[in-house]
Amino acid sequence: MQMVTLTADVTEGIKEMTQKLIKSGMYKSQSEVVRDAIRQLAYRYRIDTAPSIEEVRKIFEKAGKKTKKTLSQTVREIRDEA
Amino acid sequence: MNYIDTSSFVKYYRYEADEKGANKIIELIDNAKKGKAALISSFLLVGECVSVFDKWVRYKFISSEESNKTIKKFIRDVQELSIIGTLTLESVSISTITNCLDLITKHHLSINDAIHLFAALSNKAQIDQFICSDDNLIKAAEKEGFSVVNPENSWRKT
Fold first, then answer.
1. For the whole model, what pTM was predicted?
2. Which residues on chain A place their C-beta less than 8 Å from a C-beta of chain B?
């Protein structure tokens, strides 16, 4: 996944808390702390991070230009491999 | 209540032009999201759907990033339907597999087919239609007395 840089001003207290979280071994970096904090905020405020159904159907519409295979046929393949 | 197997459920993620029967499944699942239709399946559906999306990555039809988006949306849909209470997923246990052995040899099914059929048979009294797009499973479900509907054909008994 492509990463972008987000810059934020924080208080000394927030910086110390971030360092404690890394020292505890729960997180490897400040970036990981920030990513998880934002994910938890999105969950708390019920912000839907999943793509829309239209976005997903467009993905498969684009794939349909490469193959005539259907997802139902792939289910059969998975079952035959099992 | 209708039983839906993975071969039909996956059609929700495509347009009719790309996947025959998609419109019927879109209508069905959208109705379930509005509380107007009740569906039941095996929890195996979750694993099978993710396997199918991943298989398309292996085929290089979609990228890993596109597959991750699709899986995220699929999981959200299953959560949504489960919370509303219009999708019941039958658990898969040791007892399920044991009970499937007879179905495998009786109908010459793969274990996945048998798990779906067993989940449906366990709830037979409540199931109006068995919605499926897989010929092997359709034949076995018909032999077990289900009213089978293939969305690729029409909403009538196959």
1. 0.80
2. 1, 48-53, 55-57, 59-64, 66-67, 69-72, 74-80, 82
